[in-house]
Amino acid sequence: MEVIYQPYIDPEYECLIERIYPPWVCIDNDTCKDCTLVKVDSANKHGILLEMVQVLTDLDLVISKSYISSDGGWFMDVFHVTDQLGNKVTDESIILYIQQALCARRGGITKEARTCLGKEVAPGVKDLALEMTTKDRPGLMSEISAVLVELGCNITAAVTWTHSSRTASIFYVEDGLKGGPIMDPIRLSNVQEQLENVIEAHHEKGEKRSVRLTTPAAGRTHTERRLHQLMYGDDDYEMCRGCDGGDKGHKKGCDRTHVSIESCKEKGYWIVNVRCRDRPKLLFDTVCALTDLQYVVFHALVSSRGTMADQEYFVRHKDGYTLNAESERHKLTLCLVAAIERRISQGLRLDICAKNRMGLLSDITRVFRESGLSITRAEIGTYGERAVGSIYVTDTSGHDVNLNLVESVRKEVGGSVIAVHKPQTWAAHGGSSRTSRRVPNTRVEDEEDRPRLSFGSLVWSQLERLSSSFGPIRL
User: Fold this and answer.
1) Tell me, what DSSP letter sits at residue 30?
2) 180-193 burial by CB neighbour count: b if 16+ within 10 A, else e?
3) In what order do the strands lie in the sheet with 373-383?
4) Helix axes 326-341, 282-292, angle to 10 degrees
5) Which of 156, 163, 356, 402 is the most buried (most CB within 10 A)?
6) What distances in angstroms separate CA 150 from CA 92, 154, 402, 411, one per listed residue?
7) Of 197, 211, 201, which Cα lies nearest the Cα of 168?
8) Is the pLDDT of residue 82 over 90?
9) 132 pLDDT above the threshold of 50
10) Do 348 and 307 form a contact (C-beta atoms < 8 A)?
11) Contact 466, 351 (CB under 8 A)
């Protein structure tokens, strides 16, 4: 392996430099006609790029272009962003949050900035987190939800991803009777044991699985980043392929994921090129994979044209080594493809909005299971008196769901399903990050006629105003 010389810098000195030269953030709405420029200058540290992207994506902002440079121990970046409607970011509460979040060490984020548009930016931080990975199977989410209700746990948020026949889930729970976090060690041990029984019930000998409880902590890992880590730890990337031809050999019009890695020996970089279908949070997923694999991004250019996105990264390993081994290059390729594919949503999307109550998720998923529907992805959160989110379903064989069946399920659920969207071929790739946001309609629409609603889009809407406009769905 080739080693790039890097001088030793004492960690305490790095902290001193950051205190002397704190991050500088500029929100520019004058330079470009069609987007807001978020300019960031900061002392460089490992993971800072991911922190920047995470702040913007948590606000459900669209990053259409980005220029990144971090040579010489200093980080400089420019993000071109809009809201989900394609407009500039002018909301003062969002601008305040961006400025304070990107400069968090200068005194933290004020309560005013942390609560944007009437909601907390990071729900579930004060709750117990239950993390699970196992082989995917129909009815699993229903069984987990039912066990938690029986144990007196109220689910405040739940996120599930499935990829390469594996699934990773994070459930945030609180005490269903007293409220607040569950701290009794005996009760926590019982919860973990019961969940392990559910996971183990259908597993095969030697198959990987895990159940982990994380108590409330201020430094808890971001939920979606943690899902990436769980699926990586479950080796889901080993079944990824992307496009057989790689980036050089892909055919014109192919919208599969292409990753190519080339050497830049003059500077000691590896040049990572990614071309794939554009979609929300694409940049976050790619940077998340690079960061967690301990690669440092020194320069990058990210842009999107039409439905496709191009990303180019100049990277080195954190310890200074480059990817001389073909096996290491191959693993990085597979991990990037997996990071991009994990958020791809297969099946029919059902948007949920209902009055929050204990056992709601268990009741909804039970109806899905009894109706022969399999959940491929779910994102549900509770905000005040409302439970809001999206669930993607297929039949137990992974095929499209009959809409008449969905209507009967909707009636049995009791009207909690507020919008149903037909699956389309392009939707399986996650859609474009430039799609607009609309209030769910009262009829089924073709995905091409109607933009894709992300979980973040629903959450950032004013829930009371949004829920008052809902009507019955007619299929």
Assistant:
1) S
2) eebeeeeebeebee
3) 210-214, 128-135, 166-175, 153-163, 373-383, 386-395, 348-355, 417-421
4) 150
5) 163
6) 44, 10, 32, 25
7) 211
8) yes
9) yes
10) no
11) no
Average pLDDT for 257-270: 86
Match 């183990």 to its residue by tokens.
200
Tokens 């702040």: give the residue: 55
Alpha-carbon distances of 98 from 55, 262, 281, 370, rounded to whole Å: 7, 35, 17, 44
Cα angle: 259, vertex 263, 269; to 5 degrees: 100
- Region 79-85: mean pLDDT is 93
Structure tokens at 407: 């209507």
Give one word for 162, left, alpha or beta, with left for phi > 0 and alpha for psi -120 to 50.
Answer: beta
| Measured CA distances, 1 to 296, 319, 320, 323, 326 (Å) | 17, 12, 10, 7, 11
**Is 98 in contact with 25 (CB distance < 8 Å)?**
yes
Give the rounded distance of the alpha carbon of 244 from its chain centre: 26
CA distances from 214 to 128, 299, 378, 411 (A): 6, 35, 20, 36
Quick check: 174 and 157 in contact, CB under 8 A? no
| Residue 449 dihedral angles phi and psi, to the nearest 5° | -85, -15
Give dist(CA 213, CA 216) in Å, integer. Answer: 10
The β-bridge partners of 316 are 296
- Per residue in 170-211, pLDDT (tens digit) is 999 999 888 888 888 999 999 999 999 998 887 777 677 888
Q: Per-residue confidence at 434, pLDDT binned at 50, 70, 90?
A: very low
Count, residues in the chain? 475
**Coil, helix or strand for 7?**
coil
pLDDT at 311 over 60: yes
Looking at residue 449, what is its pLDDT?
36
The one-letter amino acid code at 251 reads K
Return the closest-CA partner of residue 192 out of 171, 213, 209, 164: 213
The Cα 362–Cα 285 span in angstroms is 29
Least confident of 129-143, 238-252, 452-466: 452-466
Q: What is the maximum alpha-carbon separation in the chain?
A: 66
The answer to whether the CB of 101 falls within 8 A of the CB of 113 is yes
From the list 169, 146, 131, the residue with the least C-alpha distance to 375 is 169
For position 269, what pLDDT does the model report?
86
DSSP output for 163-188: ETTEEEEEEEEEETTT-S----HHHH
